[in-house]
Amino acid sequence: MQTVGIVDWHGSEDFAPLMLVMSGQEKHRLIRSLGEVAEALVAAWPADDGREYIAAVKTCLDAIQGNIPAKTARDALIRAAEEAGIPVIAAVH
Fold first, then answer.
1. Is the pTM of the predicted complex or chain greater than 0.85?
2. Nearest of 39, 10, 43 to residue 24 by alpha carbon
């Protein structure tokens, strides 16, 4: 697989925003970039196990490194949220 280099993980044109409805202080977490995917998975996720969670972490890292599109990491985050019982809302900007 060819690496295109580290991408701008704080913004991406092919990343459609979404909202995670989580418990805790920040109940509604808007996800607009790979950086926000990484932050949600590492700092705010309710559990650090689960097949889809681990896959999402790996996919996010691959996307940050430029090996796969940001959309693939977004899709993995949605699957991890479903696994964890976290509602996902499509956000319009």
1. no
2. 43
